[in-house]
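Margin note from the TA: students keep mixing up input and output lines. Inputs are the sequences; the output is the structure of the whole complex. Example:
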Amino acid sequence: MHILAEFKEGLLISLRAIRGNKMRSVLTTLGIVIGVVSVTLMATAIEGVDRAFARSAAAFGTDVLYIQRFPWVSNEDWALIRNRRLIEVGYASKIDRQVKLSDAVAPVVGTRRRTTNGNLSMEDAFVSGTTHMFMMAAGVTLADGRFFTAEESNGGRPVCAIGANVAETLFPHEDPLGKVVRVSGHPYTVIGIFEKQGGLFGVFTSDNRVIVPLFSFQSHFGGRRDATIQVRVADVKQMDDAKIELEGIMRKIRRIAPGKQNDFNINQQELLTQTFAPISLVIASIGLFITGLSLFVGGIGIMNIMFVSVSERTKEIGIRKAIGARRRTILMQFLIEAAALCLFGGVIGLAIAFPLSLIVDQVLPTAMPLSVVAISIIISLAVGLISGFLPAYRAAKMDPVEALRYE
Amino acid sequence: MNVIELKDIVKTYDMGGAEEVHALRGVSVAIAKNEYVAIMGPSGSGKSTLMNIIGCLDTPTSGVYQFNGVNVSEMDDNDLARVRNKEIGFVFQTFNLLPRSDALHNVELPLIYGGYGAGERKQRALETLTHVGLGDRVHHKPNELSGGQRQRVAVARALVTRPSIILADEPTGNLDSKTGEEIMGLFEELHHQGNTIILVTHEADIAEHAHRVVRLRDGLVETDEPVRRRHAAAASAS
C-alpha cells in the first residue's frame, strides 16, 4: 500500500515533469526511438535471413542424402579433390538393389538452358533429368498437375514438371498444364508445377527448375555428366547408419581399396544448417552490437537529461525530504521518470519500426517477431532504469539542508 | 514531559583543510508540550543550524537530542525522514510548496509519504485546508494564490500529519506586515488548540508573539526567558 502510493506519486510527478519540458523530453526520447528502431529492424532482418535460410535448407529435405563428387561445405584442399571421378547415373540402380535403410533412390543430372514459350523466355533455367523416383527422393510437392510416371520416365517421354518461377515467367496469364515449353529448342509438355519454395535472394532457389525424364535429358543435352544420387532414408532416426551403409555401397561400386580415402561425398541438409548456424550467430551478434550502440547513445542522452532534471529540481527534492520523503522514495521518483521517458521512446520506436519491417519484408520475407517486440520494450525499460540510476541516486543522497537552501 | 531535550549540542562544519566553523558550541534547551517558543539571534548566531537539528534535517556533531524521549542524534537518514514526516511540521519563509501541484496535493504529500490510504489522505487534507481558511481554494496552484494563502497552505501541510511540533522558519519574512500579522494570528490559534510551536526569527516583534524567547549568540544560548508582558496583554485583549 505504502510503496504503491509512492509509486503512483512518482508516476504522477514524472508525467508532469515530462509534460512540463515537452521539447526536451521529445529530443531526449528521440535517441531511444532511433535506438529501438535500429535494433528491432536489425533483429527483424536477421530473422528474415534465418527464415529464408531455413526454408532453402528445407528444400533439401531432412531425410535425404546426396551422393556427390564434392562436399557442400569443406575444408579439404581443392587441389586434392578436383580430379575425382564423375558420379555416374548408373550408380542409382546399383544402390537401389543393395540398400536396406533407404526407400527411394533417384539420379539427378542438371544443366542450365534457355527455356521458352513463344516470345517469353527464361535464360538460365535449371534443367534436370531424373527418374520417377525423384518425387519420393527429393521431398518436394507439386502445386498442380502430376509428376511423370515410371513408364514416361523409362520411355524418355518429352514431358516436364516446372518450378513456380518458370511457370510465372513463361505463362503469366494462362495455366501452363498441357502447354509446351521449349528447352534449347526441344519441346516438352508441362504436366506438373512445383510449389513455390522461395529462397535467399534467389541464390538457393529451386523455383527456376525444369525437370524432365532422365532419358530424354541424356538424348537432348548429352549423356556423360556428373550426377547427384539422391537417396531418401526410410527412418530419419537412422540417418547415420544409412550414411555408413551408402558409403560402403559406394566404395564397392567405385572399387576403392581399403585404407584409401573416399573419392565422393555424402551430403545432407544438416551440413548446411550446421555451417550456417555459427555464421548466422556471428552476423546477428555483430549486427545487434552495432545497432545496440545507438541504443546505448540514447541511454547516455537519458542519463544526461536526468542529471539536468535532478539539479533543476534540487529545491523540490529538499522540500520532499523535509516533509518525510525517504531516499528510496526520491530514488524511485527519478527512476520512474527515466523509465517512462525510455518506455515512451520504445513504444514510439516500435510504432515506427513496424511499418519499416513491412518494407524489409518486400526484400527479405520476414516478420517482426513478437519476442523482439517484448524484448525491445523490456530493453528500453532497462536502459531507462540503468541510465536513470546514477542521477536518481545522486538525488536520493542529497543533504536536505543544502537542497532546501538551493535556489 | 518535554517534547524536545537538547543537551550540549555542538555542531562543527569542516570547511576543508584545517578550517572549522563552530556553528553551535554547546546548546542545551528543553521545550515542553504546548509551548510557544521563539528562537532568536542575528545571522551567524547558529539559529539556522539549531533549527535544522531540531527539525531532524541534520544531526549534531556531539551532544544528545531527545525527541519525545527518543535519542534522534544518531539516527540514520531513513529514520530521520520518518521522524520529520510524523512528528515535525515545517513552515518555511519561502513557503516551499511544489509549484506544479494544487493546494490539496501539496497538503496530501506528507500523508503519501506517511503511507495513508487515498481516501483518508484526501479527507484529512481537505479538513486541514478548511481549518486554515482555504476550504474554497483547494484546487488552486501556488501561483494562483496570494502570499498569505500560500503560507496557509504550507501551515496546513505542516499540520496535516498532527505532528508533535510545528517548526516555523521566518514564516512572515516574505509577507507584508498585515498578512504577517494574520499568519501570526493563525499560529496563536494553533497554539491555543494545543500545538507546540517553535518559531525561528530575527525580528523582535515577531518573536514577541511567542511565550518564551531563546536568544542565541555565537553558537551559545545568550538568554532564555518567558515573554510576560506581551503575553498578558494579548490574553487580556482576547
